[in-house]
Amino acid sequence: MRTRAFAVCKGLVQKEGCPIRNLMPLAFLTARHSLEPMLRSSLWSLLCALLLALGAPSAAADKGQRYLLDIDGMTCTSCSTTISEALMTIKGVAAVNASHLQGRACIQTEGRFDLEAAQAALKLAGYVLKAEQAVESCPEGLGGNLPAPWDAHSKGLPVKTISTGEEVELDQHLAAESYTIFDFGAPWCAPCHDAAQALSDYLRKHRDVAVRVIDLSGETPEDSYQQPVVAQHLQYVTGVPWFIVHAPKGRIIYRGMEVKRAMAVMDKHRKRAAKARQ
Fold it and tell me: How far is CA 6 from CA 25, 33, 58, in A?
């Protein structure tokens, strides 16, 4: 059994790419067959001990690198947040930048981490890792500035950004004869992007609604919540998105974080107003 174990170790040591092979001097590699059998056996024993101590080659990635992952299934804005949270649970991952628009995520490592663990984490979250590659830096759009929630949805609609963090008087921006939605959101906020999508669809169906955007510009919640407009209007608010809805005559009919609720309140108010006119 001992001889068989040595044979297995010899095969592992001589295997291409095995870390032990790099520790063996070239002279020993060329002259090992001329050594006495007992000496060879002792040397193989030593090499086997080293092999067991260091461990066999693994699929772990080198430390301190960036890896670009192509991911299948990123069909919604909130997918970026879900994938980032899933990958951040993996040991050795220091930071994650993901883009549902590109279908990719960029990982910054601070130690050895297993790519198979990343694949498993993504699968558990409902996504598929299609490919990965080591990169010098994260591509533009992954590590750079994030788009504001309304950037991709405001074209052709009565949507106007009235603040990017500075103080603003909301009453000065009420839309005449329309429902006015003051939408407080931030680039990093996935529900804010989803709300912008939902409201853009709503605006196309209802021409008596206008949106005034207060963009809490910033790459992180800490950056956004330091904006002056937060202290002015969101002092007692727990987070974003946050909506303040005014009826056509200026009365506030909704304050809250639920975009569906905001739309339902406007629908109900519109029906009551129509009934009152009859």
Answer: 20, 15, 21
